[in-house]
Amino acid sequence: MSAPLLEIRHVSRFFGGLAANSDVSFSVEQGAILGLIGPNGAGKTTLFNCITGFYPPSRGEVVFKGRVINGLPPDKVCHLGMARTWQKVRPLAKLSVLDNVMVGALARTNRLAVARERAMEQLEVVKLAHKARFKAGGLPIGERKKLEVARVLATGPELVLLDEVMGGLNPAESEEIILLILELKRRGLTQMVIEHDMKAIMRISDRVVVLNSGEKLAEGLPREVVENREVVAAYLGDAP
Ligand SMILES: Nc1ncnc2c1ncn2[C@@H]1O[C@H](COP(=O)(O)OP(=O)(O)OP(=O)(O)O)[C@@H](O)[C@H]1O
């Protein structure tokens, strides 16, 4: 079997006395979708921040394509082929949809015509090309989320980390995002997905990692994880 694309080795992240991540280890195989779940405050976004260089881990190693990337700033991590979306989507509101995606594409080229072409391609992928000339600030939430994904794809990543891309969407909009994630997988992209919607996680994930109070509580196939008693207890509170 080939080496995993991403390895998290004993990663901890402290904020003062709080361990937002505590000795977390797992890996993500090339081409797979890994679902990252856990109750509010479990440490999911902190782990994304540690992986993508926004907060360096306090301990442990993040290994991407066989290289330890701890301490690299986010732009260098992006250049190596990893990009993430944010839970709170904040497009450059006054710029057009196309210009927003071009900002992502400019991570790989300084030629505007090339960036524009790549940005348009990604707008086609997320089915937002018809809004290319619209101001980003005027998009409804469902389209803002797609714009965020297009911007990330335009950076030319091998691994994308999606932080609650279905948060705040209605069922029809969520379904579009699920189909998009599955299409990106079909194209060979590796993905890590934070999501609270368990049905969506069950449908898209090859494997699931569960965090609770900063620690890895469980890992396995989606079915194994939802049937795990400790996982159920963490979500529902201890059964009597
Ligand atoms: N910059 C920070 N400074 C201090 N504490 C932080 C910081 N970032 C996160 N935390 C704390 O770390 C813990 C984990 O937060 P995190 O946002 O990673 O959880 P989460 O699983 O993503 O939660 P949610 O599902 O609500 O988004 C929380 O107790 C949070 O308050």
From TrEMBL:
InterPro entries, alphabetized: AAA+_ATPase, ABC_AA/LPS_Transport, ABC_transporter-like_ATP-bd, BCA_ABC_TP_C, P-loop_NTPase
PROSITE patterns attached to this UniProt entry: ABC_TRANSPORTER_2
Hydrolase keyword on record: no
GO terms, molecular function: ATP binding
Coiled coil: none
CDD domains named among the record's database cross-references: ABC_Mj1267_LivG_branched (cd03219)
Domain ABC transporter: 6-238
UniProt keyword terms in alphabetical order: ATP-binding, Nucleotide-binding, Transport
Name of the protein: ABC transporter ATP-binding protein
Species for this entry: Anaeromyxobacter paludicola
Source species taxonomy: Bacteria, Pseudomonadati, Myxococcota, Myxococcia, Myxococcales
